[in-house]
């Protein structure tokens, strides 16, 4: 038997496989916190990496964005490219995921801009990049889209199927969008529908991403709750996301989003990577954690030694 994710020690978590991770998330009953950070962004506290900072503020799952898996590097993580993810796991004792983007060349993009500096090739959801991510030792692959990149529900469904076929049961597979990701027609309250959600699960998604209530225009609590119910009925978990820079809002706003997301029935709560640039505001990570699970679990997660 596994423990609830919110109760696991670093040593215990190191031995968890995909099925164990999913069971431990489900057992935590909506109290798992994910924090996203931008791999090449300067660390918020200089020589302590953003993954370490997020873990110190209570995050259970660390999601690395804009990581070029063909030439991986994370600011303030001193490791050879092939060991970057494993070093994050060693330093934090947390689960680590990486974003890959299934860009749709036919997407009806709203603008011509795309998110993030540098070469995009190592960020795309290609077979080569999926294999590279698994080789790095990630616990999960997140198929999603950054602003303006042109990721659609169709491209996500295709990517979920191909990635699941490629990785089998090796890693947890998460998929969905935090916002429109560049699409004009699949935006706001039309971001997704029940058929697409069921398609993601049928294709092999373990966890489906959805915008948290109050983040994407028109995505209110009742709408997102219906989406969560659809995913749960199909047999998968959900992660409500704050990918609209509100991770840099005031603490009261963060608490309100947290409670609305909790009321949807979601399994994992996510805070994005642009509180300023690169990570959510640390005080917002802690405030969100306290809102969904109280001080006892928050302080325990913050304080627990990696030696346990």
Any overview of this molecule?
The chain is of the alpha/beta class. Helices cover 38% and strands 14% of the residues. Strand 1, helix 3 (50-56) and strand 2 form a beta-alpha-beta unit. It has a single domain, classed as Aldolase class I (TIM Barrel, Alpha-Beta Barrel). Helix 3 crosses helix 10 (282-303), helix 8 (221-234) crosses helix 9 and helix 9 crosses helix 10. It is built from 10 helices and 8 strands. The two termini are 19 Å apart. The protein has an 8-stranded parallel beta barrel with strand order 1-2-3-4-5-6-7-8, surrounded by 9 helices.
Q: What is the compact description of this entry?
A:
With 308 residues, this protein is α/β, with parallel strands linked by helices. It has ten helices and eight strands.
Topology:
Elements: H1 10-14, H2 18-27, E1 32-38, H3 50-56, E2 61-65, H4 84-92, E3 95-100, H5 127-136, E4 140-143, H6 153-167, E5 172-176, H7 194-203, E6 207-211, H8 221-234, E7 237-242, H9 251-264, E8 268-271, H10 282-303
Parallel strand pairs: 1-2, 1-8, 2-3, 3-4, 4-5, 5-6, 6-7, 7-8
Helix pairs in contact: 3-10, 5-6, 6-7, 7-8, 8-9, 9-10
- Range of helix content: 25-40%
Query: DSSP helix count?
Result: 10
Shape: globular
Oligomer: single chain
Number of strands: 8
Question: Which CATH class is shown?
Answer: Alpha Beta
Secondary-structure-based class equals alpha/beta
Residue share in β-strands: 5-15%
Order of helices and strands: HHEHEHEHEHEHEHEHEH
Q: What is the CATH homologous superfamily assignment?
A: Aldolase class I
Strand line-up across the major sheet: 1-2-3-4-5-6-7-8
Q: Distance between the terminal alpha carbons, to the nearest Å?
A: 19 Å
